[in-house]
Amino acid sequence: ISAQRHSNRVCVTAAVDDLVFHQPIKLGEVVTLRASVNRAFGTSMEVGVQVTAENQLTGESKTANTAYLAFVAVDDQLLPVKIPAASPRTPEQKRRYNEALVRRNVRLKRRCAQPD
Questions:
Q1: What gap in Å lies between CA 75 and CA 80, rounded to an integer?
Q2: Tell me, what's the pLDDT at 105?
Q3: Are 53 and 26 in contact (CB under 8 A)?
């Protein structure tokens, strides 16, 4: 949803990176996903996701999962289309913006190293 809102296009998943399971989600806990576009790269973008689980009886909240996902915006023929740049404003957004480029370079290097 974050990717589609940022690009105003249908977006397809290109990669899932650094999916980390921090805490188990227990039966009855309410799950909330928070996502943000960290950086846009022409036709693709990185979205950071944090999954929080909350015990409604105690009010206790915990981070259950985190991940970085790469999405590509596509047109009606499923061809990649240019998207607007992300404009970080806060120090936290600027940190995520800079780190997204590092992760993208690692992702591209990994892809180039994989045999066909």
A1: 6
A2: 93
A3: yes
